[in-house]
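Summary for the steering committee. One of the milestones for this cycle was to obtain a three-dimensional model of the protein with pyridoxal-5'-phosphate bound, which we needed before selecting residues for the alanine scan. The sequence and ligand used are listed below.
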Amino acid sequence: MTPDQPGHQQPTHRDLDPHLRRYAQRTAGMTASEIRALFAVASRPEVVSLAGGMPYLPALPLDSLADELAQLIMTDGMTALQYGSAQGTPELRERICEVMALEGIRAHPDDVTVTVGSQMALDMVTRIFCDPGDVVLAEAPSYVGALSTFASYQAQVVQVPMDDDGVIPAELDAMLRSLRAQGRTPKFFYTIPNFHNPAGVTLAVARRADVQQSCAEHQVLIVEDNPYGLLSFDGQIYPAMRATDPDNVVYLGSFSKTFAPGLRVGWALAPHAVREKLVLAAESATLCPPTFTQFVVSRYLAQHDWKGQIKHYREAYRERRDAMLAALAQHMPPGCRWTHPAGGFYVWFTVPEGLDTKAMLPRAVTQRVAYVPGTAFYADSHNPPGRDNSSDSDNPPGDDNSPGDTAPAGRLMRLSFCYPTPERITEGVRRLAAVLERELELQRTFGSVRPRTMFGPQSPSPDTA
Ligand SMILES: Cc1ncc(COP(=O)(O)O)c(C=O)c1O
């Protein structure tokens, strides 16, 4: 029987998933991220992906790493392939303290917990602090992986506006006061201070003390997530908030962007009591982080010029950032704006008024270019803070974008410059500009009608749905 034959009944949710009634309530907050669907599309060779945040691994010395790994198995295989401590190996925790010292952090290896990427650290922190309905503060926009973790623990995410200098301390303070007036204390403030994902901006050093003071005054913990801090294009390293406030900051770090994400090695540096809870939570999740990849990272840090490798990465990313900014300036139509990141992987881009980056995505993929729509980076994508639908069409093209500007989330997108070659980036931006030109032309012809209504069902690429 086909769907259009008489008597055919549409399958219900229960027919599609017979286990539906069994799931815990928290699974309601677990939805596939827009990024996940995009990775499938972006991996097609004909598509220039400006979507994913994949590090540029061709910059790694693979031959010498292969030799090191063989050596590692020969000399330390019996320990490296065995179970290990739930907190991580002492050697790696010591090395991690040396890495963090670059940001002014003085820490004891006892306070470091090694995790399976900093994503697991985010999950552990949320697990030990958040009951359903608890408030978590985050920047607007914020890292999509953190938002999905908070949602999976049924936390209520309240986002605080940013501008070119990161989160706005006065807005944060006002939000804390407003929540206090409602009798609510956020469990923590989650922030990505350096080369923000997705906004590409850095929290001004002068603002850091204000942020810390407000959080301390309201007894709100800071979760400082810093995977990009060593990837500035001019070599500047910003002081970590953890450096000045060891008691009220949980610092999250990662080797994903400075070495390799496939190793899945990250860490949390936490006040002593919090660290104890983190280790217990980590133990119940994984028993212990993989010993083998911890040995790989320890050996790499001990025997390789890892700072030289980071410099190599920084140069690769700066070249790509330059290619993206030059192509945007050359090709984008009037009414577009974008940030000018000084490090990291991302440009935050605003399309002209009346366009909708989520609705436009399937058409962009048809034109062989992919990006992440801005709505992915807001817990409440329909009503993000600090945004309205006011007109800003007076802005000339290429005007500095600010994450705190007034464009609605539907006009925003994240463009990643980390992985494609500069030539591919230029081509991707050119394709994207052509898509925008066409959308604008249709808008001029038909008026500002939502593209979804205008074109009927969209199905050029099912995996962008
Ligand atoms: C801000 C931020 N935090 C955490 C992560 C997770 O990184 P990891 O690979 O260490 O789990 C990412 C990954 O892109 C990120 O951008």
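Key point for the committee: The radius of gyration is 23 Å.
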